[in-house]
Each structure stands twice: as C-alpha cells, then as structure tokens.
Amino acid sequence: MAREKTKKNLEEAFCGESQANRKYLAFAKKADDEGNHQVGKLFRAVAEAETIHAHSHMRSLGMIGSTVENLDAAIAGETYEFTSMYPSFIEDAVMEGEKQSERSFHFANEAEKVHANLFRKARENLLSARDVDYFVCSVCGYIAEEEAPDTCPICGAKKEAFKLVE
C-alpha cells in the first residue's frame, strides 16, 4: 500500500483518469453525431488509454478485491449515492431553480437504487448465478434484466432507448 501522499496522489489520478474517460466518450459521441468519425475514433482510443491508467491506479491502491468484496463495495457506493449524495444534490437544484439538473439528479438517484439491488441480488446468487441479459436505458441509466421494457419505469423512454450489454 502506498504512503499517505502517494495514496492521495493515486486517488486524485484515479478520479482524473476516470473523468477523462467518461468525458472523451461523450466527446466521441458528439463528434460521431456531427459526422467527424475520425475524431470520434481518436476520442474513443484516448478514453480506452485513460481506463488503462485508472485501472493501474486502482491496483496500486488495492481497490480491486475478490468478487464478493467488489460487490460489497459496489453496494455501498450505490447506496451512498441514493441515500445521501443525490438527495442533497436534488435539494440544491430545486432551491436554485435548476430544472435540467434536478431531472438529471432524479434520474440518476432512481437508477442507483436499481443498481444497488442488482448488485445485492448478484451477491446473494453468486454461486448459483445464471446467465442474465441486462438492458440499459440510454436516457436515465435504468437497468432491466432479461429484456428491455416497453417503457422505462424511471424516465418513460421507449424500448428502443435500451441497449443490450454484451
């Protein structure tokens, strides 16, 4: 395990690399939407490199444990988000009249509840896990098991908005 200053630096680097990955994937989608496919490809390549960096930092921090430990960490993280983080963010957005942000936080908050439950279910059934397909709503992040619903229960998006996770 790293000493304190190095640990702090690894944590900061992990956050930065993770954010860069997400940002570059969003930039790639926009470039593709505008017909700039070569730029989109470059953004996706750099996003993948940022993931490699983030994973390396995670390993250095000892953040990757057994599947059970990782599921427990995921459950704790998702639960924190829907019980503490997003409710206060929603409250702030309401007080400041930020409707779009309020909607974004609300969708994420509701989806995080589903994510935590899916992780709990996976942990409970770890040894007897069967193969299940997951479908992610591209509007709000809701995840459905087995098949995409006709309408997303969180945001109302139609079935076509769901993407099968390979």
Describe it for me?
With 166 residues, the chain is mostly helical. It has 3 domains: 4-61, Ferritin (Up-down Bundle); 66-130, Ferritin, core subunit, four-helix bundle (Ferritin, Up-down Bundle); 131-166, Rubrerythrin, domain 2, CATH 2.20.28. The chain has 4 helices and 3 strands; from the N terminus they run H-H-H-H-E-E-E. The protein is globular. The two termini are 34 Å apart. The relative contact order is 0.08.
Mean pLDDT: 95
Which sheet architecture does the biggest sheet show? 3 strands, antiparallel
Assigned CATH class of the largest domain: Mainly Alpha
- Anisotropy-based shape: globular
Low-confidence stretches: none
Number of domains: 3
Mind telling me the C-alpha Rg? Answer: 18 Å
Structural class based on helices, strands and sheet pairing: mainly alpha
Query: Spatial order of the strands in the main sheet?
Result: 2-1-3
The CATH architecture of the largest domain: Up-down Bundle
Q: Give me the count of strands.
A: 3
Distance between the termini: 34 Å
Percentage of helical residues?
Answer: 55-70%
CATH topology title of the largest domain: Ferritin
How large a portion of the residues is in β-strands, by DSSP E?
5-15%
Number of DSSP helical runs? 4
Question: What is the N-to-C order of secondary-structure elements (H for helix, E for strand)?
Answer: HHHHEEE
CATH 4th-level superfamily of the largest domain: Ferritin, core subunit, four-helix bundle
